[in-house]
Each structure stands twice: as C-alpha cells, then as structure tokens.
Amino acid sequence: MKTAVVTDSTAYLPEEIREKYKIHMIPLSVVFGTESYREEIELTATDFYQMMREQKELPTTTQPSTGMFVELFEKLSKEYDAVISIHLSSGISGTFQGAVTAGQLVQSIKVYPYDSEISCMVQGFYALEAAKMAQRGEEPEAIIARLDELKATTKAYFMVDDLTNLQRGGRLSSTQAFIGGLLQVKPLLHFVDKVIVPFEKIRTKKKAMNRIVELLGEDAKSGGQYQACIIHANREEEAQAWKEELEALYPNVEFTLSYFGPVIGTHLGEGAMGLGWMKK
After folding, report:
1. Domain extents for the chain?
2. Can you tell me the distance from the alpha carbon of 233 to that of 248, in angstroms, rounded to the nearest whole number?
3. Which of 24, 49, 68, 271 would you label with 207, given CA atoms 20 to 30 Å apart?
C-alpha cells in the first residue's frame, strides 16, 4: 500500500524537509484586517512579527476549509492508496476535524486523520516519522501505532515573554496582564487534554527557561535517546545560544531549532520560547 503523509502549516517544517520526505502541507491563515495570508506560503514568520508590531489590532487565525482538504485528498488519490493527515491539537483548532470530515466525504482514498494533541515542530516530528515509515512501505495502521508510542513520551513547555497577546486574545484578563507585567511573571504553558493550560508561574525569563531545562533533564537523564526542538518567536540568536547550551548538557538528545510561525505566534506573541521533546 502506498501511503501519503499530510500535515498542516503549524508543524513549521522547512520546505526542503517537506520535499525530501514528500510531506504534503495544508496551510492555516492569519488575517490582518481584511487581508488573509496563508502562513508558510504567503507570509513568513519574520514578516509576520514585523506586521504585528505595526498593527494596533491583534490578527485573527483561520483553519483550512473542508473543501481544501477534499481537494488535496482527491489529488493524492491519483497516486496513493491511503493518507495519514497529522494536525495540531483539536483542543485549539478545528483543523483536525476538517480532515476527519473531508476523509468521510472522499471515497477514492482511505484517510487516517491523526490528532497530534500538540503543535509546532513537535507536531512536525510526528509527520517526519510517519513519512519515513511510509517511504519504507509500512502499513497505515503500523504508522498510527508508532505515532501513539511517540505520543506517550512527548512533552512540551512554552514560555510567554509578554502577556499582552494572551490578554488581547481573550485568554487572560486585563487585571492579570497588568499585575503579571509588573511582577515580570513568565507563565510556563503546556498541553493537557489537547488544550494549552498554565504549568507554573515563574518570575523571570531566565528562571522560566532554567525550569524547562530541569524538566527536560528529568527525562533525558533516565536513559535512552531523545529528539528535541527549541522553538522561538523571532528570537533566533537567543534560541541558537540556548541550543548550544543544551547540547553540551545532554549529549543523548538531538536538538533541532524551529520557530513559532504566524498562526501560533498570533496567540503567544513575539519573544515566546519553547522546548519540546520525545523519545526516539
């Protein structure tokens, strides 16, 4: 059986990686006023953060339509027998449900929608694993089972540098944002039951990042090989320095550098940093 792999743009997989492993991407969009931009196609992360600084109003985000999924799946059916469609957590977007609905409408190919229950490059890790297995000719059911194995060891923590976007997006009250700003609170966030929730409130950015390193260490020091990604919101130099520091601490972890693109960056804001990992 020949199996295609689809993911959405919030996996933030570089184009050359998608091409190498034949991973098909369906984009989410960011809307500034009346203008809509497909991330990773019409809008880069760098341009997005520049636009964010220039706009008074917070942009909105939109998921792919069911029709976009149907069109993609029907196109893939000309070459493939099945498709595994891996998407950001269903708790923060309806993208996964769009894949489910489209899979029920398309008769020409068997669709296996997969809820990563996370986002960003950690979601990309699932797509990469699926694509490598698909290239080896493994059955879709075996690929899904492997993704579930990875999910059991997956963790990710995000630190928001500025509470403004969470407050402007209705995810934090004005009073909480004001007090948090005065106290330099850097909330650590993580995914629980498919949604983003606070993990801990930490006073400074340095302490927050050190806490994330501690959490990684608890797993990495237990043995085995891990893959991890450092994710930044327009803070590449800082992320690169953190990557070098972590590589020296944990030689059994393979680190990748990635970013919060427009859709996720809309909610987390510029300056956010994250670290996600899973056992190889």
Report:
1. 3-28+63-151, 155-279
2. 23
3. 49
CATH no. for 155-279: 3.30.1180.10
pLDDT in tens, the chain (280 residues): 899 999 999 999 999 999 999 999 999 999 999 999 999 999 999 999 999 999 888 899 999 999 999 999 999 999 999 999 999 999 999 999 999 999 999 999 999 999 999 999 999 999 999 999 999 999 999 999 999 999 999 999 999 877 677 666 655 556 565 556 656 678 888 999 998 888 888 888 899 999 999 999 999 998 899 999 999 999 999 999 999 999 999 999 999 999 999 999 998 999 999 999 999 9
Domain at 3-28+63-151: CATH architecture = 3-Layer(aba) Sandwich (3.40)
Outline where DSSP puts E strands in 171-214: 186-192, 195-202
CB 123 within 8 A of CB 86: yes
Structure tokens at 278: 């899973």
The set of residues, in sequence order, having a beta carbon less than 8 Å from that of 43 and lying 6+ positions away, is 30, 37, 262
